[in-house]
Amino acid sequence: MNRQKEISGFANQLYALLKKVPKGKVTTYGALAKAAGRPRASRAVGNALNANPFAPQVPCHRVVRSNGEVGGFAGGTDKKIRILKDEGVAVKNEKIVLFEERLFEF
DNA sequence: ACGGTGACGCTCA
DNA sequence: TTGAGCGCCACCG
Hints:
single chain; 106 residues; mainly alpha; Arc Repressor Mutant, subunit A; two-stranded parallel sheet; two-stranded antiparallel sheet; 8% strand; DNA-binding
């Protein structure tokens, strides 16, 4: 509900890592959490990205669920899918096509 | 300090 | 395979 624009250390790490993800590829909340040093904080990752103050600067739309689903998006899942497709990532029924091949590893 | 919330992940039926 | 339940972590009031 509340929007918090303040950036915390944890979130800051997520943004830095996320900026390393190349266009046309995607990563997962779990992998991102792990890279940030909290392999079990996949949920916290979602919370941090939800308040993402760097909108297009940080490709938060390239973060998807571990099962290949696009997951959620502040602007709407539909919007997220649209962006991914625009970057060359095929999405079918809210799921990444060739998910594992699109996955970017830190 | 405590409880509630949420763009998740995994296990079980 | 699909759906429901439980666990995890960080942030907010």
